[in-house]
Amino acid sequence: MTTEPTGPAGSEGPTREPAPKQDTTTRSWLRDHSELGVCVLLLAIGTLVLTDALTMNVDIAQRGPIGPRTVPLAVGSALLLVAVLLAVDVLRGGRGEAEGGEDVDLDEPADWRTVLLLSGVFLAAAVLIGPLGFPIAGALLFWGSAYALGSRHHDRDPLIAAVLSLATYFLFDNLLGVPLPGGPLMGVI
Q1: HSE-up of 94 (CA within 13 Å, CB side)?
Q2: CA 184 to chain centre
Q3: How far apart are CA 83 and CA 21, in angstroms?
């Protein structure tokens, strides 16, 4: 044991014990059961979906025995069920396997350039859909996503994006009855 002076020079006080090490068993347990974070996320999303579905006003939209609450109630219930089943599996010792993709090197850092480009493309599409309409904003979204993910076919990518955007617009607007903003092309298409 070592003593440290606590008073005037030459006097010896009681010895100090080293500070106890931080309990690593809790940290280790959480690291071994990190999938529980996914369970919590699924539980939160399921609760949000169910709460939103149960507080939905359906008087106007109800046209038959299956109304607008049916799918959100089924999805929210399924999310809660999956969260509980996954939590039980994790607590019983089940573990997810690490991704071993064919062409993915897990030791490499994330490609933040791609993530930022995709985020910018999605944000731009969200901002531009009102003034430009879905056909133009959708084409920019499809083309920008292809560019961000590495496609460099500058002659065909915009054409494919325009075809996809127009097809999506017609599918939702005409066939499914979901009105999308047409923007300045509303009278043309």
Answers
A1: 11
A2: 32
A3: 34
**Distance in angstroms (rounded) separating the CA atoms of residues 97 and 120:** 32
- What span, in angstroms and rounded, lies between the C-alpha atoms of 13 and 185? 86
Neighbour count for residue 43 (Cβ, 10 Å):
17
Classify 147 as helix, strand or coil: helix
Say which residues have a Cβ less than 8 Å from residue 80's Cβ, sequence separation at least 6.
42, 43, 46, 47, 50
Contact status, residue 138 vs residue 185, Cβ threshold 8 Å: no
How many Å from the N-terminal Cα to the C-terminal Cα in the chain? 88
pTM value is 0.51
Choose among 78, 73, 74, 77: nearest CA to 54.
Answer: 73
Both tokens of residue 179? 């009105």
Closest among 131, 128, 140, 142 to 184, alpha carbons compared: 131
What phi-psi label fits residue 28: left (phi over 0), alpha (psi between -120 and 50 degrees) or beta?
alpha
Digit-coded pLDDT (tens) for 105-128:
667 788 889 999 999 999 999 999
Query: Which tops the pLDDT comparison, 174 or 153?
Result: 153
Q: Which of 118, 132, 122, 142 is nearest to 180 (CA)?
A: 132
Selection from 172, 98, 103, 96 nearest residue 133 by Cα: 172
